[in-house]
């Protein structure tokens, strides 16, 4: 994929570019948002910009893509690209926006590395960028075509017809189209983008997993209130990873405190690339916190299709009171003929200390290589579970995951 002329240049400069990517992306975003403040206001998650998560995600994806081009020159890293493409499609990203990114990113590389960026080096990294960008543009065009819509035209108006309190920090919103149009079915593990107008006029977007009937007339999403640990800007940290400084989530707070039955929200078509659970082998569904939501949709799919496959469901949470959809999860497991459920709580119902999930305690089938796993939760949780599964013989290709927010894990794959 990478030309013979550019390959040795990228190989020689990747360590220096990779080491400087944090500075490059910091300068890139600063330049771009100064020129186009509307992008920060209405497209990019400004909370993740403030806490640096988006910068880390971009740095990881660029470095990972370049490294994959060098390591496997005849293979395109489609798994990584598909994950990004689905996220972009759920934001309504269009091909023209890649030109904006290109202009400011290449300028930031030149300004950061100075004289080291010779015309040859600039041309080589320009090639890397456009290889990645054009692949994403093509994948996103396919997603829009599959959804039966024009590029970027993913938004619809949906009314909140019900509101259900799951836990102190989780509320489920039931949504229906205001025009009663039929909704296309969604695949288990998919999500929608939800756009709200904040008090300062910004129109921020967050993505929420879909639960509930996949072919019904409604969309169900569960919103976790993001509790911060200090700071001055608004952040939605829906993956529960915590951090040194993280203020309360501004979008989740609005959806909790101000949105009521009868209100209308902007909601996208469903996107997301978790594969369907096909085949006959055992299944493991491991979640933590609000990560239970996409895996509930997989359970519902198994129940609806009368699956008799062995299913191991494992969930970790702070306490029974914090375990969103606990009854629904238990009910779905009970409807499968060969399914088991195990939970871990940091605190028991009476407040006594519990403990985190120990992946080694998961009882896998006698032949782990036949197991397929789906993981969702904080990144440290997923890393721990994935590492344990690989050590026990589950193939890496059989371990799927979903990340809420920027994919900080992407460089690991």
Describe the fold and architecture.
With 413 residues, the chain is of the alpha/beta class. Helices cover 39% and strands 19% of the residues. The chain has a 6-stranded antiparallel β-barrel with strand order 1-2-5-4-3-6. The protein has a 5-stranded parallel beta sheet with strand order 9-8-7-10-11, sandwiched between helices. Helix 9 links the parallel strand 7 and strand 8. The protein starts with 6 loop residues before the first helix and ends in an 11-residue tail after the last strand. The C terminus is likely disordered.
Mean pLDDT: 88
Strand order of the largest sheet: 1-2-5-4-3-6
Helix-residue proportion = 25-40%
**Discrete helix count:** 11
Q: DSSP strand (E) fraction?
A: 15-25%
Radius of gyration: 22 Å
Number of strands: 11
**Structural class based on helices, strands and sheet pairing:** alpha/beta
Apparent shape:
globular
In the predicted model, the low-confidence regions spanning at least 5 consecutive residues are: 231-244, 408-413
Biggest sheet descriptor: 6 strands, antiparallel, barrel
Termini separation: 19 Å
Return the string of H and E elements: HHHHHHHEEEEEHEEHEHEEHE
Which features characterize this protein?
single chain, 413 residues, alpha/beta, six-stranded antiparallel barrel, five-stranded parallel β-sheet, 11 helices, globular, disordered C terminus
